[in-house]
C-alpha cells in the first residue's frame, strides 16, 4: 500500500504502540465484518462503530475501504502462512503436519477468502489485488518447500512442488461444504482421510 | 418447483414443442447472464431482452427470478451429470474417463456454480436451495458409483465412495484459478497431473 506512506510522512507523528494496536483492532474487526457480509455491504462507519473508533481514526490508519480490505486480507493470509509453517516445521513426519494443517483449515474454510476476493476484485486496483494474491502465494511456497524436501528425500515422487501445494490447498476446500461435512465424524477424521488420498491416492497398487 | 405445476394446470394450454424450446432458450440465456453478473444484478427484463421475449412470456414459464435461477442451475448441473456419466461409461479404463472429465471440468470451472449459489442463497426458499443441492449431489452419485465398482474390482482401496467423489470434485476446482492455470501447458496436462495425484498420491511407496 505505497499510497499510505506519503500520507503518514506528512508531518504526522510516528506510530506509537497504541497506534499499532488500534490499527490491529481495526484490521481484525474489518476482517470479521468482510467475512460475514462481503466487501460491498460493509461500510467504514460500521467498522468504526464495532470497534468504537470514529471514521477519521480509520482514515488516519487507512487510505480507504479498499486499502483496509487489502490489509485485512493480507493479515489473514499471513496468519495462515505462519500457522502452515509452524505446523509443518514442528511435525516429526510430514504426514502428521499435513493432518494437523488440514484439520485447522477444515475448521476455518479458506474458500471464504476466495469468495471475498472475487466479490471485492472489481473495486480494487491491480496493485491491491496483486498484494493479496502474493500473500496467498506465500502459503503455497511454504507447502512447496516442504514437498520439495520430501522429493529430495525420495519420500515424494518428482513433481512440480508448487502444483502439489496447490492441489493440497484445493483439497482443503472440502471444508467449505458445511452441508456435507456433517457426514464425517470430525475435522480430524476428515483431515486424515484427505491426507491419505493426497499421499497414497485411492488405488490399491 | 412444485409451485409451477398448479399454475400451468389453471386452464393453460398444454406445453407445445415451441413452448419447450422457448423455455430452454430462456433457461440458457438466464444461465449465461447469472454466470456473468451473479444473481442480484440480473433482471428478468434483461433476460427477456437478450432472448427477445417479453417479461410476461418469462412469467408464463417461470414463477419469478428465483424460480428461473433454480431452473438454470439444475439444468447446468444435470448437464454436468450427463457429461460425467457419459465420459465414465465410455472410457475403457476409469483413469481415462477421469482424465477426460477433469479436462472438461478444468475448461469449465464448477466453482462458478458454488459462487453463484452463495450469492443467491439469501433470496431462495429452503426448498429451492435443496433442489439445486440435489442436482449437485447427483453428479457425486455418478462418480461414487464408478468408484464403488472400482472398489469391488479391488482397483480402489475400500473407502466411502461418496467421500472420494467429493475429493475428486474438489480437486477439479483447481481450474478456477485462472491466474495459476497459465503456468500449466494445457488443461489436458493438468488433468493428467490431477488424476495422477488422485489415483496414486504423491509418495513414492
Kindly describe this structure:
The structure is a homodimer of 205-residue chains. With 205 residues, chain A is mainly α. Chain A has one domain: Tetracycline Repressor, domain 2, CATH 1.10.357. Chain A contains 11 helices and no strands. Chain A has helices spanning 4-9, 17-41, 44-51, 55-61, 65-90, 94-107, 111-120, 126-152, 161-172, 178-181, 187-200. In chain A, helix 6 (94-107) packs across helix 11 (187-200) and helix 8 packs across helix 9. Chain A starts with a helix and ends in a 5-residue tail after the last helix. The relative contact order of chain A is 0.11. Chains A, B: Residues 43-62 bind DNA. Chains A, B: This is Transcriptional regulator, TetR family. Chains A, B: InterPro entries: DNA-bd_HTH_TetR-type_CS, Homeodomain-like_sf, HTH-type_TetR-like_transc_reg, HTH_TetR, Tet_transcr_reg_TetR-rel_C_sf. Chains A, B: Residues 20-80 form the HTH tetR-type domain.
| Global structural class of chain A | mainly alpha
Q: What pattern of helices and strands is seen along the backbone of chain A?
A: HHHHHHHHHHH
Outline of chain A, from the CA principal axes?
elongated
Write down the overall mean pLDDT of chain A. Answer: 87
CATH C-level class of chain A: Mainly Alpha
Main β-sheet of chain A: number of strands, strand sense, barrel status? none
Number of domains of chain A: 1
Task: Look up the CATH topology of chain A.
Answer: Tetracycline Repressor, domain 2
From the alpha carbons, calculate the radius of gyration of chain A and give it in angstroms: 20 Å
Low-confidence stretches of chain A: 1-11
The CATH level-2 architecture of chain A is identified as Orthogonal Bundle
**Percentage of residues assigned to helices of chain A:** over 70%
- Overall strand count of chain A: 0
Chain pair with largest interface = A-B, 36 and 36 residues
What portion of the residues of chain A fall into strands of 2 or more residues? under 5%
What oligomeric state do the depicted chains represent? homodimer
Number of helices of chain A: 11
Distance between the termini of chain A: 51 Å
Amino acid at each position: 500500500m505505497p499510497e499510505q506512506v506519503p500520507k503518514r510522512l506528512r508531518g504526522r507523528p510516528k506510530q506509537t504502540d497504541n497506534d499499532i494496536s488500534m490499527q490491529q483492532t481495526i484490521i481484525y474487526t474489518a476482517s470479521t465484518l468482510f467475512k460475514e457480509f462481503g466487501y460491498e455491504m460493509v461500510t467504514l462507519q460500521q467498522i468504526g462503530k464495532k470497534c468504537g473508533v470514529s471514521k477519521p481514526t480509520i482514515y488516519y490508519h487507512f487510505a480507504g475501504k479498499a486499502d483496509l480490505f487489502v490489509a485485512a486480507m493480507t493479515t489473514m493470509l499471513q496468519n495462515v502462512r505462519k500457522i502452515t509453517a509452524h505446523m509443518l516445521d514442528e511435525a516429526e513426519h510430514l504426514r502428521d503436519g499435513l493432518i494437523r494443517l488440514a484439520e485447522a483449515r477444515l475448521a476455518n474454510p479458506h474458500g471464504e477468502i476466495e469468495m471475498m476476493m472475487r466479490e471485492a476484485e472489481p473495486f480494487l486496483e491491480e496493485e491491491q489485488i496483486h498484494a493479496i494474491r502474493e500473500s496467498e502465494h506465500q502459503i503455497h511456497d511454504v507447502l512447496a518447500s516442504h514437498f520439495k524436501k520430501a522429493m529430495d528425500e525420495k519420500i515424494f515422487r518428482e513433481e512440480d512442488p508448487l502444483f502439489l501445494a496447490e492441489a493440497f490447498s484445493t483439497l482443503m476446500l472440502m471444508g467449505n461444504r458445511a452441508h456435507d461435512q456433517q457426514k464425517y465424524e470430525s475435522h480430524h477424521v476428515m483431515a486424515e482421510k484427505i491426507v491419505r488420498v493426497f499421499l497414497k491416492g485411492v488405488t490399491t497398487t
